[in-house]
Amino acid sequence: MYTHQKNYITTGTPVTEAGAALVMIHGRGSTAQNIASLADSLNVQGMAIYAPQASNNSWYPYSFMAADKMNQPALNSALDTIDQLVQQIKADGIPEEKIYFLGFSQGACLTLDYVTRHAKTYGGAVAFTGGLIGEVLDLNNYQGNFNGTPVLITTGNPDPHVPLTRVEESVAIIKNLGADVTLKVYAGRPHTITQQEIDLTNQLVFK
After folding, report:
1. Which residue ranges in the chain fall short of pLDDT 70?
2. How far is C-alpha 10 from the geometric centre of its chain's CA atoms?
3. 54 within 8 A of 70, measured Cβ to Cβ
4. Record keywords: Methyltransferase included (predicted)?
5. What is the CATH number of the domain that holds 188?
6. How many helices (H) and strands (E) in the chain?
7. Helix or strand holding residue 25 (H, E)
8. Counted domains in the chain
9. Residue 107 in contact with residue 26, Cβ under 8 Å?
10. Is residue 40 one of the residues assigned to a domain?
11. Quick check: is 2 in a domain?
12. Taking the CA of residue 63 as centre, how many other CA atoms within 13 Å lie in the half-sphere pointing to its CB?
């Protein structure tokens, strides 16, 4: 089993000149550099980009719907790594309401789980194919109020890694904590990010 170190790259607008920040979380087997390259397709001018790197290129070893103990201590370490990064961004001068989150696949699951465990007013969150993490979701893990934060979740149906039922269950929980959630389901879409999803992200979150 493994844990994560504080390891991230930055790109975009220098934080001393940025009015907002975007945390981009890569999927299993990928890299911080790879997910950060997606920023070139997003309306994130003026944002500082932060992309953390997972140990072993994976935030946790098993499925996001595996028993919690199977993914520990990597999962808790991953959540702590994102929290440390958020605290760093705040220390860099960007307030929480100007912090955005985006992730793909395993990174989308981590994105949703982190922001829902710390629900508050953020700039927005985007999950390209993901849901809340756990064999069975424990509502006690999710606290706070999103106060209308825009959250976009997209997924394919069927998806080989993320069942639509878990996505819909996650949407209900996140909505109940006050987020303005948009769910877009693409029939037959493979496990990837399409131009349609990027366009929708720019329309709904990075306006």
Report:
1. none
2. 17
3. no
4. no
5. 3.40.50.1820
6. 5, 7
7. strand 20-25
8. 1
9. yes
10. yes
11. no
12. 10
> For strand 124-128 and strand 47-52, is the pairing parallel, antiparallel, or unpaired?
unpaired
Verdict on whether the full-model pTM lies above 0.85: yes
Specify the DSSP class assigned to residue 120: S
Q: Check whether the bond before 158 is cis (ω within 30° of 0).
A: yes
Which pair of structure tokens corresponds to residue 26? 């890569």
Distance of alpha carbon 200 from alpha carbon 152, whole angstroms: 9
**In the β-sheet with 47-52, what is the strand arrangement from edge to edge?**
8-12, 47-52, 20-25, 99-104, 124-128, 150-157, 180-187
By C-alpha distance, which of 14, 15, 18, 38 is closest to 26? 38
**pLDDT computed for residue 165 by the predictor:** 97
Residue 159's SS3 state is coil
Within-domain flag for 20: yes
- Structure token pair of residue 153: 């979740």
Q: Do residues 112 and 173 touch, judged by C-beta distance below 8 A?
A: no
**Closest by alpha carbon to 103, among 93, 117, 114, 90?**
114
Amino acid at 145: N
Residue 127 lies in a domain: yes
- Could you report the per-residue pLDDT of 95-148, keeping only the tens digit for each? 999 999 999 999 999 999 999 999 999 999 999 999 999 999 999 999 999 999
